[in-house]
Design goal:
Layout (H helix, E strand, L loop, with lengths): L4 H42 L1 H9 L3 E5 L4 E5 L2 H7 L1 H4 L14 H8 L2
Antiparallel strand pairs: 1-2
Length: 111
């Protein structure tokens, strides 16, 4: 059954309206994405100098609060705490740390 010219014109108008709707949805999605990205972009520019220094010092940078906060961590601290058990001295070792003041240590040693 052949289509009439009126129905073809209606289809063209519907198609154009669908194209305009898709364009508006695409534009709206782009605007929303840019607005959602603003805090991260602001944080990156605000903390750029601190992030660069953290990079020079080989620190870890943890981005917080959607880009509006930073936490810096020196990974060497975790190696010190892990090796702390290894660094403890035996009770007979003369290098044993003491809570006594220098005067008490001096009095005990006889000097």
């Amino acid at each position: 059954m052949p289509r009439s010219s009126a129905s073809t014109a209606d289809l063209i108008q519907e198609h154009q309206a669908a194209g305009v709707t898709a364009a508006l949805l695409g534009t709206a999605a782009s605007v929303v994405a840019r607005l959602a990205n603003l805090p991260r972009r602001f944080g990156n520019s605000f903390f750029a100098m601190n992030d660069a220094e953290a990079g020079w010092r080989d620190w870890e940078v943890i981005v917080l609060a959607r880009g509006l906060g930073r936490q810096y961590r020196d990974p060497r601290f975790s190696t010190v705490s892990a090796g702390e058990d290894r660094l403890q001295t035996s009770p007979g070792d003369p290098q044993e740390p003491s809570s006594a003041g220098w005067w008490e240590r001096t009095a005990r040693s006889g000097s």
